[in-house]
């Protein structure tokens, strides 16, 4: 009896909407239906639907040839004449005129029908799916396209579908199917509980994936590509943890940094205000979160040319990061790097110089340790069982985001060192050595060799040659790789 109320509610909903519950798209546009859902009689195409369906098929086939993502399926092409979009929000108009993807307003990005996510308790899966309006995944405008692969994700236009696909949807398209498909109504309580647990696990996996993807795009300097991934990180974090949880802060910071990268400072400050508000309301907020917030605030102030305020936030970032991770940690080096950039822009070259040297030292030490560990693993491979080796490798490997950060930071420092009016060959050689180790670890051996030989040649001309031996050893290692060809 307990399940009869939601069931009748679902029937009422399906009668009202002219479709069966659980179907992601109520239109008659696409043949078939959502996973495991049949189309209702009322949703089939009317007279002339066959010809329109054939045209739609041909159009989709053409799209498949031209685009790297699955062909969109139109929701309204067959059953009714194509309607214009219901409304263009200010954000969409701005995007169209600037040619860039502007993220939606904070509230609209996370808006769920009837303020769903106030508590950390996950909502009823079936209701969550039933109530979801067909809105564009990126901007929240009325949708008229949907992903032809998962058939559960909607877009206002092809531009937004493509932007989402290249950013994150390609990775999560199939992961969304179990997350966005309703559980059957008539199942035992135990099974429902298990289903909800599985759902939360999957959502958390998607949060990790979207977060790390967005973070990597940011370190690669691809800010626009990072936005859809960061939006998904925020959306799923909101669904799992609620709208005022401190777990949302990392996603807000990603969005803010992406906005700063594409010059949308106002939008960035809105995201940062949200993050700040959450941090202020969380008395036991960790310093790890606070240092990231100060870094993002510092980056925004620096982008706006407010250098004094930027230095204030970056000093806080360095203080909090060093008290949590240590003064010589790579978490702290990030703040030093951004602070050096501010001093560089202020033309205070002495301070900038010493900070760049500090950043190089931290990465140099970190990479030296990583290369040594890698070598120990290779040496012990013959003696140990494969199981212990795997454990060691996974513990010591750099994360993808760390690799991207190191590549961005060290190349930026190298550029500055090489273009400086007053050359410091010792410092330049140190950056080159760090880069050679980094490229060796990520198995880009030709670049590793190039950087290593440059560092070696520079150091040969100097009186102090203590690093020469280490670089020579690294070059030997690179040459020893069987698949390396110069
Ligand atoms: Zn859109
Ligand atoms: Zn999809």
Automatic annotation (TrEMBL):
Residues 136-173 form the MYND-type domain. Residues 1-11 have a biased composition (Low complexity). Keywords: Metal-binding, Zinc, Zinc-finger. GO terms for molecular function: zinc ion binding. Residues 12-21, 84-94 have a biased composition (Basic residues). Pfam families: zf-MYND. Gene3D superfamilies: 6.10.140.2220, Tetratricopeptide repeat domain. Residues 1-108, 377-396 are annotated as: Disordered. Residues 377-391 have a biased composition (Basic and acidic residues). InterPro entries: TPR-like_helical_dom_sf (IPR011990), Zinc_finger_MYND_domain (IPR053248), Znf_MYND (IPR002893). The keyword Zinc-finger applies. This is Zinc finger MYND domain-containing protein 12.
């Amino acid at each position: 009896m307990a399940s009869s109320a939601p069931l009748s509610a679902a029937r009422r909903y399906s009668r009202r909407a002219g479709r069966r519950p659980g179907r992601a798209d109520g239109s008659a546009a696409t043949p078939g239906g959502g996973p495991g859902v049949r189309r209702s009689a009322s949703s089939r195409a009317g007279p002339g639907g066959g010809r329109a369906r054939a045209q739609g098929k041909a159009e989709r086939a053409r799209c498949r040839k031209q685009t790297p993502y699955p062909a969109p399926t139109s929701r309204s092409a067959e059953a009714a004449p194509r309607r214009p979009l219901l409304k263009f929000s200010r954000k969409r108009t701005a995007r169209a005129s600037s040619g860039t993807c502007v993220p939606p307003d904070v509230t609209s990005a996370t808006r769920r029908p009837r303020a769903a996510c106030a508590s950390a308790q996950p909502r009823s899966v079936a209701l969550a799916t039933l109530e979801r309006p067909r809105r564009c995944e990126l901007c929240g405008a009325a949708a008229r396209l949907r992903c032809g692969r998962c058939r559960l994700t909607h877009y206002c236009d092809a531009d937004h579908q493509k932007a989402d696909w290249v950013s994150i949807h390609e990775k999560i398209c199939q992961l969304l199917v179990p997350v966005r498909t309703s559980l059957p109504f008539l199942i035992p309580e135990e099974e429902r509980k298990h289903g909800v647990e599985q759902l939360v696990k999957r959502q958390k996996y998607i949060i990790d994936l979207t977060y790390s993807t967005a973070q990597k795009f940011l370190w690669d300097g691809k800010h626009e590509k990072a936005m859809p991934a960061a939006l998904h990180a925020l959306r799923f974090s909101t669904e799992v943890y609620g709208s005022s949880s401190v777990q949302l802060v990392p996603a807000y910071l990603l969005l803010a940094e992406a906005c700063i990268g594409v010059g949308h400072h106002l939008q960035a400050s809105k995201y940062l205000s949200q993050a700040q508000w959450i941090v202020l309301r969380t008395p036991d907020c960790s310093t790890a979160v606070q240092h990231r917030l100060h870094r993002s605030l510092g980056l925004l102030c620096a982008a706006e040319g407010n250098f004094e305020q930027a230095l204030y936030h970056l000093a806080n970032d360095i203080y909090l990061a060093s008290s949590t991770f240590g003064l010589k940690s790579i978490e702290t080096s990030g703040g030093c790097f951004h602070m050096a950039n501010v001093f560089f822009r202020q033309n205070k070259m002495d301070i900038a110089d010493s900070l760049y040297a500090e950043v190089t030292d931290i990465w140099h030490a970190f990479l030296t340790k990583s290369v040594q560990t890698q070598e120990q693993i290779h040496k012990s491979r013959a003696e140990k069982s494969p199981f212990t080796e795997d454990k060691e490798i996974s513990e010591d490997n750099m994360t993808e985001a760390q690799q991207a950060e190191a590549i961005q930071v060290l190349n930026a420092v190298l550029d500055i060192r090489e273009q400086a009016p007053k050359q410091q060959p010792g410092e330049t050689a140190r950056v080159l050595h760090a880069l050679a180790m980094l490229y060796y670890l990520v198995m880009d051996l030709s670049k590793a060799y190039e950087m290593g030989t440059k560092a070696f040649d520079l150091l040969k001309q100097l009186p102090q040659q203590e690093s020469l031996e280490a670089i020579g050893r690294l070059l030997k290692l690179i040459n020893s790789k069987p698949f390396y060809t110069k």
